[in-house]
Write a structure and sequence with these properties.
single chain, mainly alpha, about 65% helix, globular
């Protein structure tokens, strides 16, 4: 990464930080590009070099986070990780982002990050066999994402391992047809 690219990346990160600082006290709909650039101490022109609008900035955060999840998951877990390991990793990965995610949840912006993301999670990203059906993959993605939403909406969420253990303990209780 050359100096100009590094500076552009630093500006994007400052703008993401500014967005979350402003979300703590303002409704997303009321935040303007001017508010973001003032908070980040950057020129509006700098904002528009990277983003068309604040929705693009939010999408950037979501896409970047999901790509980071995929990269870290591939580095830390084998392709054949069992469901318990994969679930525990999933919740542990998002734990450091809990304050930011909670702000998004409080403003009903969180669930849209997954549906609007250009990053597609694969069966391997969830600890599934690559041959898993798209139905099972979608079911798990939706379930994990919704659980993440419910978990981090709490003022004091339980530790990540507790959430994963609870889910794994309760999954076999789902009624099935015999």
């Amino acid at each position: 990464m050359n100096g100009q690219e590094r500076l552009a990346e630093q500006s994007r990160q400052l703008l993401v930080g500014a967005l979350f600082t402003l979300l703590a006290d303002n409704h997303y709909g009321e935040i303007t590009v001017t508010d973001l650039t003032t908070q980040a101490q950057l020129a509006r022109r700098t904002f528009y070099r990277s983003f068309a609008n604040k929705d693009d900035l939010l999408a950037f955060y979501g896409n970047r986070s999901l790509r980071r999840y995929q990269v870290v998951r591939r580095e830390k877990l084998t392709a054949t990780a069992d469901l318990q390991t994969a679930m525990t990793f999933f919740f542990q990965f998002w734990w450091p982002e809990r304050h930011r995610l909670r702000l998004l949840i409080q403003q009903n912006l969180f669930m849209g990050l997954l549906t609007q993301s250009r990053v597609t999670l694969t069966p391997q990203d969830l600890g599934l066999n690559p041959a898993a059906t798209p139905y099972l993959t979608s079911f798990l993605i939706g379930g994990l994402w919704t659980t993440l939403n419910t978990w981090l909406a709490q003022a004091t969420p339980e530790p990540p391992a507790t959430v994963a253990q609870t889910l794994l303990r309760e999954l076999p209780q789902l009624p099935t047809q015999s």
